[in-house]
Amino acid sequence: MKKLVYLLAFSIALVSCKEEQKDYVTFSGKITNKNSETVTISNPQFKFNKVIKVGEDGTFKDTMNVKDGFYRLFDGKEYATLYLKNGADINMTLDAKEFDETITYTGVGFEESAFLAQSSLNQEKLFGDKELMDLPELDFRSKVSSFVDDFNKRFEGASLDSTFVANQKQSIAGLEKYLTKMYNDKQYIAKNLAKGADSPKFVDYENNAGGTTSLDDLKGKYVYIDLWATWCQPCKNEIPFLKKVEEKYHNKNIEFVSISVDRQKDYETWKKMIVDKELSGVQLYAKEDKAFMDAYRVSGIPRFILLDPEGKIIDSNAPRPSNPKLVELFDSLNI
């Protein structure tokens, strides 16, 4: 009976001594050659923002109650990505002069952040390969495939949060898809949108002055095309510069063609903006037709294109009106 009581008491003692799961993460570290007096940990999605003071010797420490997930660390100049969970006790060291190359993590629950740090270095090296997008297709695919395989091998035997692993596998699949699209687009542009190639065409776009206009209607003059939208602030920022360029080359052998890619719901906004901002040149509405933009592999606006009088490409990604190089280009063509 005494033995049974003793064993029971011993079991209770073990349970009492077992450390409970902390509802916070402890984050500490030391920064050599620090960039500021603080580091900031944030996650806008969680509406989380924590500023931690960095001592004169570069050390810092604080506790945070967090939701499991990814956080951004900012040292006043550069960023790093962390993965934080309550209960973790992570220590970070780095030299701010060689930020990515020197980040190290130790402690409890550091593995995910260390994984991210290594991934960042590997990805930086891959994107730093200036020859990657110019490789023959089989060599390109082989190099990207090897990068992905090496990434996935790092999961083997690693003690990582299952949610984190799922996210990273989705992330690497997305990166592979992104790189492949970049490569395919560059090869397409080199083949189909090179200087001297026939330009893709747009047909029967609505002309604000009345009727419709097709690219073929503009043959005989140089054509400077502006792809824009009323909701695009960078597009609107170019308007004053475009007006000045149009005025400088008024009555010259060039047409300035602005093509609105607004959705139908913004059609009246487009019409009104032409009046309010006194837009000149040829003002066209694409009527939600994306064929011309897709043919030029447009991924963002504003986008400017310059064609010669025969409808051949001079520059498929021409300088913006705000760029002095545009006037230099026009003058070199004796427009």
Automatic annotation (TrEMBL):
Keyword tags: Cytochrome c-type biogenesis, Disulfide bond, Redox-active center
Gene Ontology biological process terms, A to Z: cytochrome complex assembly
Thioredoxin domain ranges (all copies): 193-335
Pfam families assigned to the protein according to its UniProt record, in alphabetical order: Redoxin (PF08534)
Cellular component annotations (GO), alphabetically ordered: cell envelope
PROSITE patterns tied to this protein: PROKAR_LIPOPROTEIN, THIOREDOXIN_2
CDD domains assigned: TlpA_like_family (cd02966)
Localisation per UniProt entry: Cell envelope
Protein name as it appears in the record: TlpA family protein disulfide reductase
Organism: Tenacibaculum singaporense
